Amino acid sequence: MEHRPKTTVAVLELPHVLSINISEDGAVRLGDYEGQFLQLVLEALGTEYEIIPEKNKAFGKLLPNGSWTGMMGMIGRGEADLGFTHVTVTEQRTEVVNFSTPHTMTACVFVTVLPQKIKSTFGFIHPFDLKTWIAILLTFCIMIVLFGTFQNKYSLFKIFFRLFANFSKQDSMPVEDSLKYKILLLTWLLFVTVITFSWSATLLAFLVEPIRDTMVRTFRELSKAVQKGTHKATFYNMSLPFLLNSEDKDLKQLGEIVVRNKWFEDISERGKGSYVKYRAEQAMHRSTAKMLFGNHEELFISEDTLYVSPMAFAYGRSFCCPSKLNSIILRWSAAGMYDKLLRDNSFKHFLKTSYKSETESTNFSLAITDLLGVFILLGVGLALSFVTFLAEIFYGIAYSARR
């Protein structure tokens, strides 16, 4: 009988990443996307294997006496031949273990709940920013002066009302025979048409889908928000050196705040969404973020990354067949198997769970608050008209009394 070497594999049981299932006949089956990928690699490797979970669920860190804890320590001491489960390649770890060909690249991103939608009383001014409104006002004033220069029939006050009426598609200034006057009028009408259509289209978009509160999109923005005290950020231990040793002042301050407040990830809470709340961000591997939250439209996964690192198998000095392992990983990676398992498990997780964020549900019907600003302007205008009406009456009475 052919003797096959036995390979001991150290793993971390992480929720939704790798799980160990033992059947009634004692057979070990690995679950979740990293567990399934490991199972494929071990079966292709062709050796007998034994799965050894790391009891503290720790990747391992270097102690002052030079020894390692966790999974790295198990491999370094010869207690395991292989190590797998989100193992990232770092320079420090290469001092105690070897690494295979990377099977994927990972990046540190953060996940947060999308900001709440803002329903402003004066939402009708949102289609244009302040600079655009100022430019429109200046153009309007200049056109009043130009129309007043080219004709003498109307006062500037009357020209003001006639030009203002164009914004609501009312009658404009009368057409005259002067060519320069016609060119001026045509230019003004073209300007008004573009402005009114642009404003109307954008306003409808804002009414149907209100704008959201300011959100953080990068780690630098996250750092500034945390420094202001408006946000909380939770990180896992491995990401802290990248913050604390960063040359960027904001990132370094973010790391110091995280350490001072002990905003560390509890691995037992992973996958429950405990840290992902409104104005509370959680840093994690991009693959984990896609797995847990990739199908949730109410959540935001940052495009900005804190660092990018290859992920690979760690193996000890006595491992039998690193060349064969690298060949297997290259074949599975070229076939896109790791990404396929990640997508499949992410969709299954989405179907099983019902993650409820703190964002409000979308309501497509307009409420009175959406148009409150318009009614306020109407009320102010009617009040001014009534005051003017009373002033004219009293002025008429006083003028008649003098005569």
TrEMBL record:
It is a multi-pass membrane protein. PANTHER family: IONOTROPIC RECEPTOR 100A (PTHR42643:SF38), IONOTROPIC RECEPTOR 20A-RELATED (PTHR42643). GO terms for cellular component: plasma membrane. Its main location: membrane. Residues 151-382 form the Ionotropic glutamate receptor C-terminal domain. One of its GO terms (molecular function) is ligand-gated monoatomic ion channel activity. This is Ionotropic glutamate receptor L-glutamate and glycine-binding domain-containing protein. GO terms for biological process: detection of stimulus involved in sensory perception. It is found in: Cell membrane. The chain crosses the membrane at residues 132-150, 183-208, 371-398. Keywords: Cell membrane, Glycoprotein, Ion channel, Ion transport, Ligand-gated ion channel, Membrane, Receptor, Transmembrane, Transmembrane helix, Transport. L-glutamate binds at T88, R93. Belongs to the glutamate-gated ion channel (TC 1.A.10.1) family.
